Amino acid sequence: MMPKKELIRIVKTPEDEVLIDLTGKKSGRGAYLCGKVSCFKLAQKNKSLDRALKHHVKPEIYEQLAEDFTSVENEFLAVKEQSSDE
């Protein structure tokens, strides 16, 4: 259990797209992961995103999410650090 601001939201949109939602405001069913790539890899291994989103997440979507997760990890951690300083 962590505060919502310390988690990254993965969302399945009404158009059946699965993507990262850093704003936390996109419509659709969401799942939250800690901001580390290791958390994402564990979720992929356990298929916990499939269960949370109530949707089969295809392997190619996991690959794209892994790339996206890596690219947003540093941005997410910087925002988290900045908000903790205030």
UniProtKB/TrEMBL annotation:
This is Nucleic acid-binding protein. SUPFAM superfamilies: YlxR-like (SSF64376). Gene3D superfamilies: YlxR-like (3.30.1230.10). It comes from the Bacteria. InterPro entries: YlxR (IPR037465), YlxR-like_sf (IPR035931), YlxR_dom (IPR007393). It comes from Paenibacillus pini JCM 16418. Signal peptide: none annotated. It holds the Pfam family YlxR. Residues 1-66 form the YlxR domain.
